[in-house]
Amino acid sequence: MSQPPLSDRWLGLRSWGLPGPFPHRVLTLLGRPELDLARDHKVLAIGAGRSYGDVGLNAGGIAIDSRLNDRLLGFDEATGILDCEAGVTLDTIVRVMLPRGWFPMVVPGTRFVTVGGMIANDVHGKNHHTAGSFGNHVVSLTLMSSDGAVVDCSRDHESARFRATIGGLGLTGLILSARVRLRRVVSAWMMARCRRFAGLDAFFELEREAADRYEYTVAWLDCPSAARGPVRGIHFAANHASTAQLGERPPAPPPGKPRWIPYGLPFSVVNAVSTRMLNQAYWLAHGPSEGLQPIYPFFWPLDGIAEWNRFYGARGFYQFQCVLPPEAEQAGLAELLRTCGDAGQGATLSVLKRFGTVAAEGLLSFPRPGSTFALDLPNLGERTRRLLAALEAIVLGVGGAVYPAKDANMSRALFERAFPGLDEFLSHRDAAFESSLWRRLFGTGP
Amino acid sequence: MSRRIVIVGATSRIAECCARLWAAQGAEFLLLGRDATRLEQVAADLRVRGGQCETRVFDAGCAPDVEGLVDGAYAWRDAIDLLLIAHGTMPPQERAQQDLGLARQVLEINGVSVCLIAEAFAGRMLARGAGTLAIIGSVAGDRGRQSNYLYGAAKGLVARYAEGLRHRLHGTGVSVVLIKPGPTETPMTVGADIGPVTLAQPEDVAHEIVRGIDAGRRTIYCPAKWRWIMALIRHVPERLFLRWRI
Lengths: 446, 246
Fold this sequence. Notes:
The structure holds 2 protein chains of 2 kinds. By secondary structure, chain A is α+β, with helices and mostly antiparallel strands. Chain A has helices at about 90-95, 115-120, 130, 160-165, 200-210, 245, 270-285, 295-300, 330-345, 380-395, 410-420, 420-425, 435-440; strands at about 1-5, 5-15, 20-30, 30-35, 45, 60-65, 70-75, 80-85, 100-105, 140-145, 150-155, 175-185, 190-200, 215-220, 230-240, 260, 290-295, 305, 315-325, 350-355, 370-380, 400.
């Protein structure tokens, strides 16, 4: 059923990290839209607004807000395949399906993202080494192009468009709905192990040792500590808890209520001193341990604080996430850490993980074998952008890639080198769809 | 025993969000609304969430067959635990000022049809001595304002009606809950000019409604702050109020 938009007005939109707001003509849709896109209109679907940089922005253009399209369309108990509209959030899926013993195959670091957004960015999680990324578990998706045509895409039908749309940054059309595979879990508890380490060698040893025994692994890195010697960190590894491990605990404890941060801190409380203190506190709080942990704080610790991006004040922050290929990961990481240390501007959350070898589905998918490293940098203007450029030069030098979902600074040269599927992708791109990131990289280009 | 719930205006966003919470508890629904396709979408979603659903097309706009609606509901289940009346319409008031036909619709759909549906169900619930009638009114019904008085008048009618019906049914086992949402981000308000207020999220409003009904509240302002805001607005002397363009 086609419907005209519910509303059509100019609004300021923000991304998760950038200061903004950026003006958009926002079309709020319900049901299958009647898109009447004049050729010069540039449109982009927007989801929950949790991308850090400008991949989810279309400043000065049209934003299609399909968050009201959030219906679960069907669930097949036999196959575990959930059919849902693109505006459904991961939070909804987890809240509805987890008490019944189902969990998504791959979850990113926040639950407050939409299915459409997870597909467009081919998001990954702590189980990349065993499960690949989100796109690997999308069975099919319904895509609407700017001419109004609606196509079901899957690995068997319209497979080229399917591969272009997964990780396709929202530029191949409007994702209306998708069928995604869930898995059985016995409870909402994780059996998690926590180990301290010092030095990158120790990190790689822990990753190697944990890869076969644990479905989920990730490490937190105390970036400022790299200036004083071998970088220290905490390595987390976990599996879904078994019934025997559960004992008397309730199988599905509900998520806690998020705590709020008062609106609009004028300045960032994140600086070199506070990040050193924060990292020290985090280190002290995570001694070696092994035990049961509820699923919500394990996967989504930051979702416990609503709008934590407000800590960074009015200027916001950048997140930098890259992947370095296996042959260069150790040396490359050491150089990234050295560069961060020299810049001395502090980094709160640095995360390190080794990706596995499961091939990503999408032509522009970010995940690939090697080590992925992410850190948040308060926006100090030119100084921070210089640091980002230096980090990107290292990534370019070793043949790595930067993650578009987090990016606000990547150069065209790096994008073209890092995403060899680009040429094929361009033949499936819908010319009416564009984002701020795309214009930054290519102008009004290809 | 799962709860038997009838929702009139089931495609309304607030009603749908309430229904999602009840579906998680395994409720049985009879969903009524104007648009068969959208009703079926809502029903599909509620089924995945654990509810059982049937849908019927019902239009509160053109001489609604209220007796037929009630007979149909009691043919569906012989007892109904909860009726939620949630349908409504809010065209821009300037249009209704110029078009008496539209003004009549605003008054009838939001006011008269709501009272008649509640009245018909009240009789059936009274016969059984159990049940809850939950009616979505609005903070707009608390005081007439130049910008939205036709809608507000209809919602005011509903408020006075609910008050009287509650008085009549007191002690019978049938309860009447009047829900007064503040401005909420729904398809009804998304294009409307609401003024300089922050729109509440329908999910949050629904949580307060479901909690309030379970707690046996008579009037539910949601978000709760609107109870105090409207108390203030109601008490502004008219001499001052007339000069205040809200």
